[in-house]
Amino acid sequence: MTKLALVVDDSMVIRKMVTATLKQLGFETVEAGNGKDALSVAQGKTLALVITDLNMPVMNGLEFIRELRADASHKFTPIVFLTTENENQIREDARAAGATAWVVKPFHPDKIISVIQRVAA
User: Fold this and answer.
1) pTM summary value
2) What is the rounded distance in angstroms from the CA atom of residue 91 to the CA atom of residue 75?
3) What transmembrane ranges does the database entry give (predicted)?
4) Strand 27-32 to strand 3-8: parallel, antiparallel, or no bridges (unpaired)?
C-alpha cells in the first residue's frame, strides 16, 4: 500500500527538497503552499505523514495543525514541524497544537529521514 505524505511550505524549493527525500523513503506526496490550501488537499485523503512549515501566508503552520487535528480522520497523523524557528515557546505551541516532531531549517536530508522513520514507521 502506498504511503501518502502532505508537504506544506510556501517555498517551492523546500517542498521539492522534502518531496525528493520522501520519495526515497517510498512515499507518494501531495503539496500545498500554505495551511489553507493544505486543508483542502488533505480533505478526504488518508495521510501517513504531514510535514509543515510555520511561517506561511494565508494560514500559518500552527493554525493549520490545529485545524487538521480537529478533523477526526487526521487526529493521529504524524505531523513534523519544519521551520527556521528554534524558540522553546514556539516548540511548546507546536506541541500543544498537535505537532509530533520538529526539524529546524536548514536541514540535512539524513536528519529529516531519521525523524520520519521515528514518527511514521
Assistant:
1) 0.93
2) 19
3) none
4) parallel
Task: Give the cell for residue 29.
Answer: 506526496
* Domains with residue ranges and CATH for the chain: 3-119 (3.40.50.2300)
pLDDT digits (tens, 9 = 90+) for 106-117: 888 898 999 999
Q: What's the CA gap between 105 and 121, in Å, rounded?
A: 22
DSSP conformational letter for 103 = E
Instruction: Kindly report the average pLDDT of the chain as a whole number.
Output: 93
Whole-angstrom CA distances from 78 to 4, 61, 75, 92, 107 are 12, 14, 9, 16, 19
Cell of 82: 519544519
Element (H, E) at 39: helix 35-42
pLDDT in tens, 61-95: 999 999 999 999 999 999 999 888 778 898 899 99
Q: Which residues pair with 101 in a beta bridge?
A: 80
